[in-house]
Amino acid sequence: MSQIDYETFYNKVGKENGWDFSSLQLMSEGVKWEFYDEVTKRVKKTDLLLDIGTGGGENLLKIASSLQLLIGIDLSKGMMETAEKNLHNSNVSNVRFAQMSSNSLQFPEGFFDVVSCNHAPFDSREVSRVLKSEGLFLTQQVSEADKINIKEAFGRGQSFGEEDGSLKEKYIRELEEAGFSDIQSFDYDATNYFQKPEDLIFLLTHTPIIPYFGEEKTDFDKLNRFIGENQTNDGIRTNSKRFMILAKK
């Protein structure tokens, strides 16, 4: 299969895991920020926040005390089922979840003070529409050169072969066209060390980094070769490349 069915994939992952990778034993060097920390630095207690592509809602529940109301949306039914379970098991009362496409946000114009989006697609015009005047949009996305040595080892992967920085330029251009005037972008390329092969297998199974990982007969041979070539005293080495965009309406 040359193109992954993302909706089916995320429904499956949502029911199994939500978007919780806290069990991974992973060491990182060079990470410049944590996305939801950056969100909380820029919000007020009275703000209303929309989180696009919220997954299992774990991050939203962690920052709930920083805002008045938080609404997380995701296209995946599986993710939303996990998010509702996480909400039910929490002591949080100011978070809501809804299954919804980011291309058609079912909210009034100018409803939110802040919109966040972590590793999910978004529609710049829809974001602008639901944001108040002077409202803030923050997004973190995966760069094309993320996990590049893994993709090279497998000869395939998410955004493999695409020019690094293309997605960031596309989003900045679309945000400008949607009426955002103050746009800033930031990047980092961190080194990751997975402590065990099982940690790396968990990541590849629960993300689309290598589409349909494990379904090709040679996948585990390629993985074993990759581990042998990238094993260090600190763990199995790869990279995590991210960019963040801050845009004020």
Task: Outline the structure in words.
With 249 residues, the chain is of the alpha/beta class. Helix content is 34%, strand content 27%. Helix 1 packs parallel to helix 4 and helix 6 (148-154) crosses helix 9. It is globular and about 50 Å long.
Topology of helices and strands:
Blueprint: H1 6-17, E1 26-29, H2 35-41, E2 48-52, H3 58-62, E3 69-74, H4 77-88, E4 95-99, E5 112-118, H5 124-130, E6 131-142, H6 148-154, H7 166-177, E7 182-194, H8 197-206, H9 219-230, E8 231-232, E9 235-248
Parallel strand pairs: 2-3, 2-5, 3-4, 5-6
Antiparallel strand pairs: 1-7, 6-9, 7-9, 8-9
Helix pairs in contact: 1-4, 6-9
Pfam families: Methyltransf_25
Domain Methyltransferase: 50-135
Protein name: Class I SAM-dependent methyltransferase
Question: Can you describe this structure in just a few lines?
Answer:
Pfam families: Methyltransf_25. The chain is of the alpha/beta class. It is 34% helix and 27% strand.
Q: How many helical elements?
A: 9
Strand residues, percent: 25-35%
Q: Radius of gyration, rounded? A: 18 Å
Instruction: State the distance separating the first and last CA atoms.
Output: 41 Å
Number of domains: 1
Oligomer: single chain
SS-based structural class?
alpha/beta
Task: Please bin the fraction of helical residues.
Answer: 25-40%
- Under CATH, the homologous superfamily reads Vaccinia Virus protein VP39
Shape category: globular
Keywords: Methyltransferase, Transferase
Protein name: Class I SAM-dependent methyltransferase
InterPro entries: 23S_rRNA_MeTrnsfrase_RlmA, Methyltransf_25, SAM-dependent_MTases_sf
Pfam family, one: Methyltransf_25
